[in-house]
Design goal:
The chain is mostly helical. 56% of the residues lie in helices and 0% in strands. It is rod-shaped.
Length: 162
């Protein structure tokens, strides 16, 4: 009976362990494990098509294509907005340069049109103001059709002796 009293708790704990989890395989230490190669031919097996899984895969592929297109559209708009920003900045720079050139040309035009400057240059070249009767004005002959107007000479011919 003493044996049963000593062995009974061990037997009860062993049955609880056996019911809760399978015991690990124990190999003999030092004994080689031998594996045999067995050729398995699965070429005749045909996978059955699961319509639910197929529908899920089609939906997933469609969702991925849609996401890819949305991302591609976003990237295209983002890159074009950056490109337009560079073009706008280049055109602003060009506008500033053209405005500066226009200002410079207007100042140059104003200095070239200065009447005092023109009369000083004319006097340096030996020119003088016209004498009365030296300038002849052309009158409008009444034709407004754009026909050319012929010049007239009302001055008598002056001959210069040699």
């Amino acid at each position: 009976m003493a044996i049963w009293a000593a062995a009974l708790p061990q037997k009860l704990s062993a049955t609880r362990v056996a019911q809760s989890a399978p015991a690990p395989r124990r190999y003999m230490p030092g004994a080689p494990e031998i594996y045999f190669h067995k050729a398995i031919d699965n070429s005749r097996l045909v996978r059955s098509v699961d319509p639910g899984r197929k529908r899920e895969m089609h939906f997933f592929a469609g969702a991925m294509v849609f996401c890819f297109l949305v991302i591609l559209l976003y990237l295209g708009q983002h890159c074009s907005s950056i490109e337009y920003g560079y073009k706008i900045e280049a055109q602003r720079t060009q506008l500033d340069q053209l405005a500066e050139t226009n200002r410079t040309l207007q100042l140059e035009e104003a200095t070239l049109k200065d009447p005092e400057r023109i009369s000083a240059l004319a006097q340096q070249m030996g020119m003088s103001l016209p004498v009365a009767g030296q300038v002849q004005r052309m009158e409008d002959s009444g034709t407004s059709d754009g026909a050319p107007v012929m010049a007239r000479n009302n001055i008598a011919v002056v001959s210069v002796p040699n």
